[in-house]
Fold:
Amino acid sequence: MHEALERRQPDLTVVLEGVHKPHNFSAIVRSCDAVGVMEAHAVVEGGGLRPQQNVAKGAHRYVTIRHHASSSSAIEELLDRRFTIVAADPSPDAEDFRTVDYTVPTAIVLGEERGGLSNEALEAATARVRIPMEGLVASLNVSVAAALILFEAQQQRRKSGMYDESRVDAQTRRRLLFEWAHPGYARLCRREGIDYPPIDDEGNLLEIPWRTGS
Structure:
């Protein structure tokens, strides 16, 4: 866990617009964890979409899911944080996804396959990217498309040395290490509104001031 935290990329994320099928959502979260994404943003009507354990394979424990009421609120927040918006768009005039620079702060916006992306996402995008297709179908499954784009981002960032040293501030790193290593205690602390107890650099508890009960 400590080593995975050292490779987390705080300035690489995805925004999922209307990706309401749990298996697609879960597969994307799994890909996010694989390339070191710290948090993913979900815009789903009604909210509350949760990953499927048998698809996510536990990745949802290590990727923070932020739910938003609208695409505009998610995109506005990311623009305020100086993210570049990259919209996955199968339109013929979109550029090849491998030509974009993913070493800058990047939010990759993906939509559900039937409706595509919202006007808000397309208008906010600095780049619109597509995955070249040689067959008869127009696009890939959204989870497959997300994986291809994320691993292109990973490859570029590896070449630039962005995985070679920690890019997460010490306070955030310690908080996440506690939540990953001690999820039960973390839930209890949040429920009771109390601070996390201290841990050492490897995530071991230095004190247990209370018990979780049976």
In short: Residues 51-57 have pLDDT under 50 and may be disordered. The first helix runs from residue 2 to 6. The longest strand covers residues 12-17.
